[in-house]
Design goal:
two-stranded antiparallel ribbon; 3-stranded mixed β-sheet; globular; 54% helix; mainly alpha; 9 strands
């Protein structure tokens, strides 16, 4: 890997003496000597600055730790136990706060600078679009966001146009003409997942709806009116309904109706325990016909463009049963969907001090392709790309060696695995498609915000953002069939991922602390960025990725023997994570739902450690020219060996601050809750127990461990 920083190479004061010809005299030599001193001074200053930065970051890492807990007892608490007490006070754009996701706020600070950088916008030919973003931001900053103006005429007019609000309109609302499905379809046009939980990749995919506002509701968390799930959702509905000056009796009646609808709807999901795959199996086993209203969704959301032949994740049984429930609760359903629209438009500020943060994040995500263009031009350097490429190369070498050595693969399957590994493509920064990017950015010119109120501006932007997400679907025929999903173009996003065409992406936005800094020791870089790269590489060989071959085509390249061995190891990991109990909600991790992410965590962490060791061995063989690197593998202020720092860096990516509702909301995610991601990965890593000297049988060094790769 390239050195993290170089001193004096072509730096200030560099002078090519050939320009002096043969006329060099004492005066010229004095100039040269003076400039050489300047180079030395810059070198010293640069070194001092880097050491001060390292010391500062080491102190920050230490402040996250709970040193009263032994690392072998609970490594997550040891690494992250104090994080919630010292983390920056940001507006949370999503529910829970997680250290790595908080990089979004680092990028937010850059977005604020871009808003007034007319020179850069002109150079990139996006001045008109930046002006629109400024108009939206200014409208947001001058708007009243706390308390949320739920009764604003713009919101009420929108609700009435898509289905109506019986709590407000009373007898004027007509139940006979109301369609819960059509109203849900209309809401998707504003990015609102009501009773149609739409996810856009290229064409729409669907998940089971998640009911509730601040707290996802399930049968056992709203069984009485004193639970936290009940109270939070009740309070949210009260706030919105009170804005319309309804009587307390009417408000109570509306809320009771919504809870009654939720309880009935949840009984459907309870039959298959919220498992979408089981729901689809029920549909097939009971010969449930295609749900009859589905064409309406395509008419409303896609102007009649139909993707029903490519439906993924859709369960006819659920919607057949949900239709029966909704027919018993038409007013409650309309009220719920109306309140959900208000919830989507609400900034949900707890204090006015977060107003600016919210507005910056609103333009950051709302005008994402515009600010991505500015960000990539300003902040993603060739130096960064070069070093990240070197780390990726080390991880690929590590993965190749692991596939060569793993004992349970037979020769035929090993050959196919190595072929797949050798053809993994890497994209660092972002995928590029300038033609599509330009078309997307130019769409912002269509927003007419001059003189519009903030609610009107917000509604316009929500519609446009959804339209942009559907861009590939609307232009499916004219685009190359190999076109990547649009989020691949967003280098500014805090993300890395594996794509089933056998490629991995390390986006530019993730290359900030706590993931990466060029001046960090290699031990920390490999524990953070190296682990994330290893995680994504391992996805190529998890239960989904292993169904695709080296060309990214679905193909079974496994022999029965190797396939059975893989399945046995997969079950070990499922059972291991199933055993993690979440005391805050009295539930266990779903090891089956999260299995691929857990496989990637365990494999990725091991690959990163192997890559780090290989990298350091290579440097030691060149110790004379890399003596400084070898001396700086520890973090100032932390009494940790380089490999202990490696594991600490990994764990602190996942420092999180959860409330009870966040645990419930996370249960439907394919990623394990952050705490158990850390515990699962290190307790199944034999090297961890050696690095931290954990005795056999301790919580972080169990007698039986699981791994595939």
């Amino acid at each position: 890997m390239a050195r993290a920083w170089k001193h004096g190479t072509g730096g200030p004061g560099h002078l090519d003496t050939r320009t002096l010809g043969h006329q060099a005299n004492d005066h010229h030599l004095a100039i040269i000597a003076g400039r050489q001193k300047l180079v030395t001074h810059v070198q010293v200053r640069s070194f001092e600055d880097s050491q001060n930065n390292l010391k500062s970051y080491g102190e920050k890492m230490k402040s996250y730790m709970n040193l009263s807990v032994a690392p072998c007892d609970d490594f997550y608490e040891y690494a992250c136990g104090n994080w919630k007490n010292v983390r920056p006070d940001h507006f949370q754009y999503n529910s829970e706060s997680v250290n790595m996701r908080d990089i979004v706020h680092t990028i937010r600070d850059e977005v604020e600078k871009f808003l007034t950088n007319k020179q850069l916008a002109q150079a990139l030919s996006v001045s008109s679009e930046l002006l629109v973003a400024q108009q939206f931001y200014n409208a947001c900053r001058s708007a009243v966001l706390l308390p949320f103006p739920a009764a604003d005429p713009a919101y009420l007019a929108l609700i009435r146009s898509v289905g109506g609000f019986p709590a407000i309109d009373g007898a004027a609302w007509n139940a006979t003409t109301f369609s819960w499905f059509n109203m849900s379809a209309h809401l998707t046009n504003f990015g609102i997942n009501g009773l149609i939980n739409e996810e856009i990749i290229v064409v729409p995919h669907f998940k089971l709806p998640e009911l509730g506002f601040d707290h996802i509701v399930q049968t056992d968390n709203i069984f009485n009116n004193t639970s936290r799930a009940y109270k939070l959702n009740e309070k949210r509905m009260q706030i919105y309904l009170q804005a319309f000056n309804l009587t307390e009796d009417k408000i109570s009646e509306v809320i009771a109706g919504v809870f009654a609808f939720w309880r009935d709807a949840l009984t459907i999901e309870d039959k298959f325990h919220g498992d979408g795959e089981k729901c689809i199996e029920i549909s097939k086993n009971e010969n449930v016909p295609k749900y009859h209203q589905w064409e309406s969704y395509y008419e409303i959301a896609w102007n009649g463009r139909n993707f029903s032949s490519r439906l993924v994740g859709y369960c006819d049984y659920y919607y057949e049963q949900l239709d029966k429930v909704c027919s018993r609760h038409p007013e409650a359903v309309a009220n719920y969907l109306s309140l959900l629209l208000l919830y989507r438009m609400d900034a949900k500020l707890e204090e006015e001090k977060y107003h600016k943060d919210y507005c910056l994040l609103a333009v950051q995500f709302g005008f994402s392709h515009l600010f991505n263009k500015l960000y990539m031009a300003k902040h993603f350097t060739e130096r960064t790309r070069s070093e990240v490429s070197a780390i990726v190369e080390e991880l690929q070498n590590s993965q190749r060696k692991a596939l060569q050595k793993v004992e349970w693969l037979d020769p035929e399957t090993r050959r196919e695995a190595l072929l797949k590994q050798s053809t993994i493509k890497t994209v660092i920064g972002s995928y590029k498609n300038e033609q599509v990017t330009t078309r997307l950015i130019q769409k912002f010119r269509g927003l007419h915000l001059e003189g519009a109120s903030y609610p009107q501006s917000l509604i316009q932007l929500a519609m446009l953002v959804t339209r942009l997400k559907r861009f590939h679907g609307f232009h499916y025929e004219e685009l190359d069939e190999k076109s990547k999903p649009l989020h691949f173009l967003l280098g500014m996003q805090v993300n890395a991922f594996y794509y089933l065409d056998n490629s991995i992406y390390v986006m530019a936005g993730i290359l900030h602390p706590p993931v990466y800094h060029p001046n960090w020791p290699n031990s920390l870089k490999f524990g953070t960025l190296g682990y994330l790269v290893g995680h994504e590489l391992t996805h190529g060989f998890d239960t989904k990725g292993s169904q695709f071959n080296s060309e990214g085509k679905m193909h079974n390249w496994w022999t029965k023997k190797s396939g059975a061995a893989f399945k046995e190891r997969e079950m070990c990991i499922i059972d291991h994570y199933n055993s993690y109990h979440i005391p805050e909600i009295n539930r266990n991790i779903n090891g089956k739902k999260t299995k691929d992410e857990n496989i990637a965590d365990i494999g990725g962490l091991q690959r990163a450690l192997d890559a780090y060791r290989s990298h350091m061995k290579h440097l030691k063989n060149r110790s004379k020219e890399n003596s400084e690197t070898l001396r700086n593998e520890q973090m100032p202020g932390l009494d940790l060996s380089p490999e202990q720092l490696f594991f600490l860096g990994f764990a602190q990516l996942w420092c999180a601050d959860y409330k009870q509702e966040h645990f419930w909301n996370h249960l439907t995610d394919e990623h394990t809750i952050e705490k158990y991601r850390v515990l699962g990965a290190v307790s199944n890593n034999h090297d961890f127990s050696q690095v931290y000297n954990c005795p056999a049988g301790s919580p972080m060094h169990p007698h039986h461990t699981c791994h595939i790769w």
